[in-house]
Structure formats: C-alpha cells, structure tokens
Amino acid sequence: MNFVVEGHQMYYSQRLANIVGIEEAAILQQLHYRLKHQGKKKVGHFWYCQTHHQWTKQHTYWNAAKIGRLLLKLEQRKLIISTRKFNRFSTDRSKWYRIDYTQLQKLLDAEEAGNNELAMQGSLPIEASQNDKKKARQEAVSDIIHYLNKKANKNFNDQAPANYRLVNTILNLGYTVEECYTVIDEQVKCWRHDVQMQKYLRPMTLFRPVNFESYLNNAHARKAPLEYVPKPVVLDYEAGETF
Predict the structure, then answer these.
(1) Which of 20, 89, 202, 203 is the most exposed place for a label (fewest CB within 10 A)?
(2) In percent, how much of the chain has pLDDT > 70?
(3) Sign of the alpha-carbon dihedral angle for 20, 26, 32, 34
C-alpha cells in the first residue's frame, strides 16, 4: 500500500507550525499563496476575498465553522487582518484578508531569540514544562467556572470532574477563555429572568461543544454592528397614501 500519493500536496512551514500550530500554519501558507497570485491591491496592501464556505473548497478536510475558528485565532494573534469595507454591498458576507507580515516577522524573531536563550541556559525539563501547562489549564477552567457562578448566581464546583471535563474539552477545541466568558454573558442575559431557562445556566448545557458553538455564534451576531439602516418611509399625502 502506498502511503505517499501523487496529486496536490499541502505545504506549510515547519518552523511556523511549531509556533502557531499546524492547522494555523496551513491557513497562513494558503493565504500567502493566494495573496501572491490572486491578491488585489487596496489602500497600500494586497487583499484576498473569501467566505468561510469558499475556504472549504481549498481546505476540503475542514468545515466552514472550523475554518472560521482558525481564522479568528490568527486574527486574535494579529497575524491576519480582515475587513468587509471593500465589499460593494452591505449584504455581502465575504471578508477580505491579508497577512500582517511585520507582526509575523516579529513572532519569528521572538521565537528565534527564545531558542538562542534556551541554547545558552539549557532547556527546561520536559516534565516541568508539562506541569506548568497543566497548572495553567486548571487555573483557566477554574476561572471560567467561577465566572459562571458569579454571573448566574450559581455555586458549581470547579473541582468536580464532570465540570472540569466539559470546560477542558471546549479549550482543547481551540476556544479561548474570553470566548467562554462571552457565551456565559450572552446566555445569562437571555435566561436569567426566565424561570424555565435559568436551570440551564450550567456547565452541562453551556459547554457541550455543539451548544457552545451555537451560543458563541449568536453572541457574535448580536454584537455585530448593523450594516444596513433602512430609510424612513416618506408618504405622499397628496397622492392619497396613508398608514
């Protein structure tokens, strides 16, 4: 059996993948290629226009939601800049993307400087590094549970295995602590005055992956500024128009 096949291959920088992750590096590499060959110059930079669904045709192994999360992570790290201001119509949901090459170079330089420092001082023991990551994750999960308790006036145990497992799964999927706070804020706002729905302000409901993605998308949609403001209706009373 051949494990290496002919045909289109996916390329990305191993060095970049070590810093930002394999999936993020693949997105950056593809965007760099598109900017170079299909980019359109606007206000001094080359931009590439795509919707999340259109991106799936280039990365067929991911769905639109997955691509949206990867692009958002790269935007949060300021490696990608996006805008809709170049769209001709306000109803057009396509986004224009470009890479902030200055920020990317700073990241690479910082990584190289860190490697040089480690080479001079000796790298930290792997076990110590893993312990630090485990401790940081435990603190993140605890902070999220405490935030839920504060906002929803609850008393969930941040040490309970079920609660920890639910929140930890969300973080493992690539969502951030801030996004967890956003979901909590949104659902508390929607349910805190609803007697029937208050009981669902709990980790089991909020942090179930399929629910979490839906809640987060709803929160972003409500926060998004209105792109279309309808003009007021002007009636011509002389022509006999009335309400």
Answers:
(1) 89
(2) 79
(3) negative
Query: At residue 243, does pLDDT exceed 50?
Result: no
Q: What percent of the chain has pLDDT over 90?
A: 35
What secondary structure does DSSP assign to 161-184, as a single string? HHHHHHHHHHHHTT--HHHHHHHH
- The DSSP secondary structure of 49-108, one letter per residue, reads EE-HHHHTTTSTTS-HHHHHHHHHHHHHTTSEEEESTT-SSTT---EEEEE-HHHHHHHH
For 14-105, CATH number out of 1.10.3470, 1.10.10, 2.30.29, 1.10.8 equals 1.10.10
- Position 89 scores a pLDDT of 84
> So where are the chain's domains?
14-105, 125-223
